[in-house]
Write a structure and sequence with these properties.
Layout: H1 10-28, H2 34-53, H3 56-75
Protein backbone atom coordinates (compact mmCIF):
# COMPACT_ATOMS: atom_id res chain seq x y z
CA UNK A 1 0.00 0.00 0.00
CA UNK A 2 1.49 3.33 -1.04
CA UNK A 3 1.70 6.28 1.30
CA UNK A 4 -0.47 9.30 0.50
CA UNK A 5 1.42 12.59 0.27
CA UNK A 6 0.18 15.15 2.76
CA UNK A 7 -0.56 18.67 1.59
CA UNK A 8 1.26 21.52 3.31
CA UNK A 9 -0.46 23.75 5.87
CA UNK A 10 -2.57 20.92 7.28
CA UNK A 11 -2.64 22.72 10.63
CA UNK A 12 -4.36 25.71 8.99
CA UNK A 13 -6.88 23.47 7.24
CA UNK A 14 -7.72 21.77 10.55
CA UNK A 15 -7.98 25.10 12.36
CA UNK A 16 -10.32 26.35 9.61
CA UNK A 17 -12.42 23.21 9.95
CA UNK A 18 -12.70 23.60 13.71
CA UNK A 19 -13.72 27.26 13.27
CA UNK A 20 -16.33 26.25 10.69
CA UNK A 21 -17.82 23.59 12.99
CA UNK A 22 -17.85 26.05 15.91
CA UNK A 23 -19.69 28.55 13.69
CA UNK A 24 -22.27 25.91 12.77
CA UNK A 25 -22.82 25.18 16.47
CA UNK A 26 -23.31 28.90 17.13
CA UNK A 27 -25.78 29.07 14.23
CA UNK A 28 -27.75 26.14 15.65
CA UNK A 29 -27.96 28.05 18.94
CA UNK A 30 -29.02 31.22 17.05
CA UNK A 31 -26.14 33.28 18.37
CA UNK A 32 -26.47 36.07 15.80
CA UNK A 33 -24.24 37.89 14.78
CA UNK A 34 -21.47 35.76 16.28
CA UNK A 35 -22.06 32.80 14.02
CA UNK A 36 -21.99 35.01 10.92
CA UNK A 37 -18.67 36.48 12.03
CA UNK A 38 -17.41 32.95 12.73
CA UNK A 39 -18.46 31.81 9.25
CA UNK A 40 -16.70 34.83 7.69
CA UNK A 41 -13.50 34.06 9.61
CA UNK A 42 -13.55 30.32 8.88
CA UNK A 43 -14.36 30.79 5.20
CA UNK A 44 -11.62 33.40 4.88
CA UNK A 45 -9.22 30.92 6.47
CA UNK A 46 -10.33 28.25 3.98
CA UNK A 47 -9.79 30.76 1.15
CA UNK A 48 -6.21 31.19 2.35
CA UNK A 49 -5.78 27.41 2.49
CA UNK A 50 -7.13 27.19 -1.07
CA UNK A 51 -4.62 29.79 -2.22
CA UNK A 52 -1.75 27.98 -0.49
CA UNK A 53 -2.84 24.67 -2.01
CA UNK A 54 -3.59 26.27 -5.40
CA UNK A 55 -7.09 24.78 -5.32
CA UNK A 56 -9.27 27.13 -7.33
CA UNK A 57 -12.52 25.43 -6.28
CA UNK A 58 -11.75 26.08 -2.58
CA UNK A 59 -10.83 29.69 -3.31
CA UNK A 60 -13.96 30.35 -5.36
CA UNK A 61 -16.40 28.63 -3.00
CA UNK A 62 -15.08 30.24 0.17
CA UNK A 63 -14.64 33.69 -1.37
CA UNK A 64 -18.27 33.62 -2.56
CA UNK A 65 -19.49 32.35 0.83
CA UNK A 66 -17.57 35.09 2.65
CA UNK A 67 -19.12 37.66 0.31
CA UNK A 68 -22.60 36.28 1.01
CA UNK A 69 -22.04 36.57 4.76
CA UNK A 70 -20.78 40.15 4.40
CA UNK A 71 -23.81 41.12 2.31
CA UNK A 72 -26.09 39.47 4.87
CA UNK A 73 -24.52 41.48 7.68
CA UNK A 74 -24.91 44.73 5.73
CA UNK A 75 -28.53 44.09 4.71
CA UNK A 76 -29.70 42.83 8.09
Amino acid sequence: MSEVAQKPYQWLAWLSTVALIASAVMASLDLYPYYVIGFMISNTMWTIVGLLWRERSLVLMNTVLTGIYIIGMIVK
